[in-house]
Structures are given as structure tokens and as C-alpha cells.
Q: What sequence folds into this?
């Protein structure tokens, strides 16, 4: 917010950790926690189904190829759309207003939110990677270096997606727009090489897919987890690390610069009468 | 709570001069001059749409006035810092935030932010004392989403009080309360004012205003049209009176600013038939009801 995170008083930081603890408990250790098992179950099921097929006459199995893509997909959905929808809800239900009324409340709240999502993403990634590695030892990173690569691209994914989620959540007006965004994110997975190499798509769709971070994060995860010869399946037959760093870097800047501006603008507009309006709308229209 | 160093010539808790608010061509507040001393319990009374919420949101620092000056606890709320925020409490009308958190968890979490602002006044308010004060002692471990509407409002009050504010804002706090909850709430306010907390509350309920206020401000159409203690206002002359009588054929009503002069004229007419003569002065209730009807 207006003060950088470094200037967060120790007490607000302590409150942020308390918030994270409570939110992790209410997210993971209640009925809602089941939803964190959906993506892992689907991923493993599809991998079992695909275990005997290979991708484009290579030695890479379709199951092996799918795992990194699903990780990227899950992190983008969770990091961008998850954070965006939560922020939208918290704007309408009075959470943000409550925090605005407390000294350093919003900074503490946003710090807690970032920490919560970092850990939630770690949990959902682990829930996919660990069972997959047990069922398909081939699909798991082969050596410590490649585990380290996996951890690196995970951190990159979280750092890129959470600010973008905050930016989107602050910019979206209403649940209609959120729904469109959600559809867009799922649609994007089709043209981002998540389920099948991008080379299989028409050229113009390849270009569209390469604009967004989902493709580049998927590429990064495949680079970290797949054997070297898998690079031949990618566009240009290489991992294109430089291009990946450049595109993800641009998205990182968009998020890190844009999110505080959008959040500040959104938070200025939060007031008791706005929350009351949302409540009226919800009670009369149901959304 | 009044700081001992400032009791001598304590500055007012709230002071506004020529406060105006317009949305486009719609003037919501038309120049409000207001001074509220520390320790007062002031009720801003007015019909819906009179500008109560706008006034309170400006004083809370959540809205910027179009014109005029505002000073709350010695600072302009629009750019007052965190230390100022720590001295101000706001009772929100929440409805479903933090549904899975337990009551105690939310209060401990919010209270944590006030720890650095502890001084002559110990902040935050100890949770168990606070829960007892608002009548939520038995619900400390209840998930917030499971509280009934009335209990949820008690939690709203508790979270407005957790930092032991010197000044407390409540915007329509009893909307949706049943009579018992309303009575409990008024008792709670009385106990707070004993602690010298300055309270500014809005309501559109005249009875409620008369019960809790040490001073009532009647806000109608963006202007304050009456200001005083409930007793003063009840006795106050609100201009026009009505003279009613029956002239043998029909009932007549004559509104006038000077009923005495009118009656002199009326009664000296030897030809006039005057039965059932009645003079009614406008009361606060009349003024208020007329404002509400509009």
C-alpha cells in the first residue's frame, strides 16, 4: 500500500501471520479442503488414462507431459482467479472496510493474504506432484537439480500470479465480469500448450497463447521436470529460457506496478454505504 | 477517554465548518457547521436520504467533502495517519465477512493492530472483558457465520470498540434489532459514555434518539435544522403553529407564525361562530414527521 511492506510494524506483521494461520485452517481443514483434492485427482486419473500414449512420436509419454502443464494451470487459476475472486468478495462483504478502519489494517491484511496464497499454492502443487511422483516415478523430477528447478519455477509462478490476481480483483466490477474472466482463464488453458504441445495449434492461436503467462509457466515447468529431449516438442525445439524470462518479467512488472495502484483506487471507494448497496443487491438478486 | 493534559481546554472531538457534499448537481450536504465536545453522546437524526451516512463517512475519513473544513480529534480525517485511526472506532454493519473465523479469533486479530498505540489508554481492550461488555461471553468460540443477526451486530460493536476508541461512530447500529436487542444496545451505549467515549450515532428512529442522546442533531435535506438536548428540543418552538376551529359549517385550519395575533383578530369578530378552538405548536415530532413524509 502507501507504505512499503518493509515498513510494516511488527504487530501488523504478527497479525498477518495470525490471519494466515486461521485462513489456512478454514481453507484446508474444513469441508472446503476437499476442493484442493479435485485437481490432483483429475490429474492422476488423466495420467493413468494416458500412460501408454506418447506425444508426437517422441519418447515422452502424454502422462509425463501433462503433469507440468497441470501445475502451471493450477497455479494460474489459483493465483490469479483465486485471489481476484476473493478480493472481490471481500470488497463487497465488508472485510476491506473493516481493515480500513484499523491502523495498518490493510497492509497487515494484504501481507497476510499474500502469505496465505503462497502457502495454499505450495500445498496444492505438492498435492499434485507428490502423488504423481509415487504413481509415475518417470514423471517426477529425476534428480536434485531438477527438483531445485521445479522449486524455482514454482516461486516464479507465485510471484507473477498473485500480484496479477490482486490487480484483476481490484479492477473487476461485479460478478458478471469475474465469470467472464474465469471462462477466459479456462479457455486460455486450451491455447497455452497445457494439455498438448502448442505446435499442434494453428499459427495465429500459437501467437495468442504466447502473449499470456500460462504458456510460459507451463514451459518453465516442463523445462524443470522433463528430460532434455522433450525440448524438441516445444516451439523452435528449445526451452527458450530468455524469451520466458522476458515475457514473465513483463507480466511481473504489470502486476507489481499495477496492483498497488488498482488496490489503492479500489480501497478509496470502499465505504459503509457501498457495502450496504452490495448487501441489498445480494439479498434481492442473489449475486 | 480524555487525556489528562488536554482536559483544561480540551479541543472539540469534532468540528466542521461549511461542510458541503455534492454528487454532480445533487447537493447532499449544504454547509454543515458542527462542534461536538469530548464525552458527548450525539445522535444524528434524520430521514433516509438526509445525508447522515455521508456526514459520518466524511468524519470517518472515508469520503472527501466537496467543500468546507473538517477536524476530528485535531486532524483532518482525509489524511490523518495510523495513530489517529487507532483512536477512532467505527461500528460497521457487516453481514458475512470472516464467516469461518471464531468470534475470539477476529477480535484478537483486530486487537493486535492496536498494540503499538497503547499508552495512557491500554489498547486493545482485553478480549474477555470486551466480550462480557457486549454480551457475547458465551459465543467466544462460535464461528462468526453461525451467529444470529443480533449477535452479529454485537460483534460489530465489539470490533468497533476493540481499540478502546476516544471517539466512536455508529451508523444506524440498531437497524434490524428486535426490541430486547435494542434495549441491551442502549444500555451498552450508556456504559460506554460513562467511560467518556465520545459517541456519534445515526438513526432515523426518534424514540431511539431521545433515549440515548445527550444531544440531538436533526438533519434534513443536507442541513441541520435543530440542535439541542432531547429536552430542549421537545420544548423548542419550531415556528409555525396551527389554529383549528369549527365555524358551524366546516372545520378550518390556519397555519401561522404568530398564533396570538391571528387569534386576536379572529376572536374580536362578533359575527364569527367559533367552536372547538384549538392551537397546536409544532413539536420536534411534527417537524420530523413532516421531513420524513417528503
A:
Amino acid at each position: 500500500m502507501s507504505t512499503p511492506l518493509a515498513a510494516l510494524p511488527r504487530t501488523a506483521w504478527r497479525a498477518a501471520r495470525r490471519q494466515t494461520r486461521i485462513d489456512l485452517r478454514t481453507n484446508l481443514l474444513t469441508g472446503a479442503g476437499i476442493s484442493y483434492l479435485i485437481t490432483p485427482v483429475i490429474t492422476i486419473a488423466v495420467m493413468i488414462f494416458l500412460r501408454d500414449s506418447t506425444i508426437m512420436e517422441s519418447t515422452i509419454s502424454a502422462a509425463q507431459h501433462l503433469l507440468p502443464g497441470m501445475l502451471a494451470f493450477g497455479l494460474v487459476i489459483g493465483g490469479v482467479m483465486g485471489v481476484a475472486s476473493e478480493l472481490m468478495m471481500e470488497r463487497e462483504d465488508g472485510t476491506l472496510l473493516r481493515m480500513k478502519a484499523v491502523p495498518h489494517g490493510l497492509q497487515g491484511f494484504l501481507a497476510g493474504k499474500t502469505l496465505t496464497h503462497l502457502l495454499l499454492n505450495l500445498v496444492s502443487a505438492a498435492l499434485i506432484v507428490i502423488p504423481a511422483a509415487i504413481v509415475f516415478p518417470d514423471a517426477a523430477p529425476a534428480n536434485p537439480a531438477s527438483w531445485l528447478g521445479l522449486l524455482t519455477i514454482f516461486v516464479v509462478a507465485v510471484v507473477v500470479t498473485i500480484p496479477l490476481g490482486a490487480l484483476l480483483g481490484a479492477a473487476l466490477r461485479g460478478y458478471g465480469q469475474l465469470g467472464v474472466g474465469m471462462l477466459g482463464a479456462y479457455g486460455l488453458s486450451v491455447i497455452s500448450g497445457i494439455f498438448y504441445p502448442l505446435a499442434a495449434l494453428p499459427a495465429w492461436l500459437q501467437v495468442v497463447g504466447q502473449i499470456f503467462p500460462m504458456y510460459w509457466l507451463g514451459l518453465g515447468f516442463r523445462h524443470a521436470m522433463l528430460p532434455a529431449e522433450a525440448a524438441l516438442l516445444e516451439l523452435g525445439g528449445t526451452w527458450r529460457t530468455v524469451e520466458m524470462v522476458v515475457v514473465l518479467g513483463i507480466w511481473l512488472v504489470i502486476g507489481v506496478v499495477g496492483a498497488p495502484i488498482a488496490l489503492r483506487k479500489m480501497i478509496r471507494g470502499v465505504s459503509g454505504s457501498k457495502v450496504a448497496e452490495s448487501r441489498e443487491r445480494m439479498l434481492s438478486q442473489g449475486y | 477517554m480524555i487525556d489528562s493534559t488536554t482536559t483544561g481546554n480540551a479541543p472539540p472531538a469534532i468540528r466542521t465548518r461549511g461542510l458541503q457534499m455534492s454528487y454532480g448537481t445533487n447537493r447532499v450536504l449544504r454547509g454543515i457547521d458542527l462542534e461536538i465536545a469530548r464525552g458527548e453522546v450525539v445522535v444524528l437524526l434524520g430521514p433516509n436520504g438526509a445525508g447522515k451516512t455521508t456526514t459520518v463517512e466524511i468524519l470517518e475519513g472515508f469520503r472527501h467533502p466537496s467543500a468546507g473544513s473538517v477536524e476530528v480529534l485535531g486532524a483532518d480525517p482525509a489524511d490523518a495517519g495510523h495513530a489517529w485511526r487507532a483512536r477512532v472506532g467505527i461500528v460497521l454493519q457487516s453481514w458475512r465477512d470472516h464467516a469461518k473465523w471464531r468470534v475470539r479469533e477476529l477480535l484478537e486479530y483486530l486487537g493486535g493492530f492496536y498494540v503499538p498505540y497503547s499508552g495512557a489508554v491500554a489498547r486493545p481492550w482485553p478480549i474477555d472483558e470486551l466480550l462480557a461488555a457486549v454480551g457475547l461471553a458465551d459465543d467466544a468460540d462460535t464461528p462468526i457465520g453461525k451467529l444470529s443477526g443480533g449477535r452479529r451486530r454485537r460483534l460489530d460493536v465489539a470490533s468497533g470498540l476493540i481499540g478502546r476508541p476516544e471517539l466512536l461512530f455508529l451508523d444506524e447500529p440498531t437497524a434490524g434489532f428486535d426490541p430486547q436487542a435494542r434495549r441491551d444496545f442502549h444500555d451498552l451505549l450508556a456504559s460506554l459514555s460513562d467511560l467518556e467515549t465520545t459517541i456519534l450515532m445515526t438513526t432515523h428512529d426518534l424514540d431511539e434518539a431521545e433515549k440515548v442522546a445527550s444531544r440531538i442533531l436533526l438533519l434534513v435535506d443536507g442541513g441541520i435544522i435543530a440542535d439541542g438536548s432531547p429536552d430542549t428540543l421537545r420544548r423548542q418552538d419550531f415556528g409555525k403553529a396551527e389554529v383549528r376551529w369549527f365555524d358551524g359549517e366546516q372545520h378550518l385550519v390556519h397555519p401561522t407564525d404568530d398564533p396570538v395575533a391571528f387569534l386576536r383578530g379572529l376572536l374580536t369578530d362578533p359575527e364569527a361562530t367559533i367552536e372547538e378552538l384549538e392551537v397546536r405548536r409544532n413539536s420536534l415530532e411534527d417537524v420530523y414527521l413532516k421531513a420524513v413524509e417528503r
